[in-house]
Amino acid sequence: MSSFRKTLKRSYSISKRKLLLILYSILIFIHFILRDTIYPINIIYYACPILFLLIGNLILSVLFFKVKKVFYTLIGCLLCLSLYWFATYYNAKSPPEPSDKSKSILFWNIARKGERSMDVIIKKVKEQKPSFIALVEAEELTDKDVMRFKNTFSSYSIQKLEGGMVLAVKGEINNIKYHYKDESFKFNYITVTLDNQKKSILIADVNAVPFTNRKSALHTIYEFTIKNNPSFIVGDFNTPYESVHFGDFKNNLNSFHMTSKGFTATWPYGIPLFEIDQIWSAKKIKPVFLKKEHYKISDHALLIGVYE
């Protein structure tokens, strides 16, 4: 009877390991084949970035260490995933030296930190002198914070926008149009004057709820972009860069993704999980370098994009 129980227990343990292996294979299939094309399967896709797949692979490799055929297959998969991760989402190249034509922009989801984030912003503007600064989740920035920025940088125009956004430009803010859809997206389209030239900026914030379908939000933002041709599109898209819904963006706009230093991920707290904060530009603008800085006051990276 004791022997039977041991056999039964061993069989149950093997079944659990096989189930984990099957589930892992499904996650791999979703990540690289289905991706986020089908709702609600895309929820699983968003929840399982490459880093999680690598950790899952290591756990399974330990569980199947004695089953050599499976173990070696998992190790091969681990190597392929690691190579793909580093080749696609890590840039080891040193940033190029800025030229006289180089300019910069600053984008940051400040996570509603108000005054504390303004300390960082003022410091970075003094260092970088960006053409413009765009902020989202900036509801807690007060009129006092805005006035402090104005008094520090007289050459900038700054304005609080609807949707909890803020824009400061080294020039003039001419016109603002706000668009939103409840529990889906919100964005401001702003025409500005920079260096005596008319430019336009789109600042987006897509809903972070993981159970919503991002297809409609990203399609709306893209269609508006094609129709109005903004110079820059910046935002917290709450959708990873590798999403199929960025396909049209990649075909018709320039992304700062390939110019990023180190891991391209921007969230959370410097952990290389998701690249959800992004900077795009019109084709006539050349991205040169994307720098990311992480501060404890926000779980999102502060982005500095250099362009020509």
Please tag this protein with its features.
alpha+beta; elongated; 6-stranded mixed beta sheet; 14 strands; 308 residues
Would you give an account of this structure?
The protein has 308 residues and is an alpha+beta fold. It has eight helices and 14 strands. The chain has helices at residues 2-34, 41-47, 50-63, 68-89, 115-128, 143-152, 214-228, 247-252; strands at 90-91, 103-109, 132-136, 157-161, 165-169, 171-181, 185-194, 197-206, 232-236, 254-255, 262-263, 277-281, 287-293, 302-307. The chain has a six-stranded mixed sheet with strand order 4-5-3-2-14-13, with helices on one face. A six-stranded mixed sheet has the order 6-7-8-9-12-10. It starts with a helix and ends with a strand.
Secondary structure category: alpha+beta
From the N-terminal CA to the C-terminal CA, the straight-line distance is 78 Å
Report the biggest beta sheet as strand number plus sense, adding barrel if it closes: 6 strands, mixed
Strand order of the largest sheet: 4-5-3-2-14-13
Average pLDDT over all residues: 93
Offer a concise description of the structure.
The protein has 308 residues and is an alpha+beta fold.
Spell out the blueprint of helices and strands.
Layout: H1 2-34, H2 41-47, H3 50-63, H4 68-89, E1 90-91, E2 103-109, H5 115-128, E3 132-136, H6 143-152, E4 157-161, E5 165-169, E6 171-181, E7 185-194, E8 197-206, H7 214-228, E9 232-236, H8 247-252, E10 254-255, E11 262-263, E12 277-281, E13 287-293, E14 302-307
Parallel strand pairs: 2-3, 8-9
Antiparallel strand pairs: 1-11, 2-14, 3-5, 4-5, 6-7, 7-8, 9-12, 10-12, 13-14
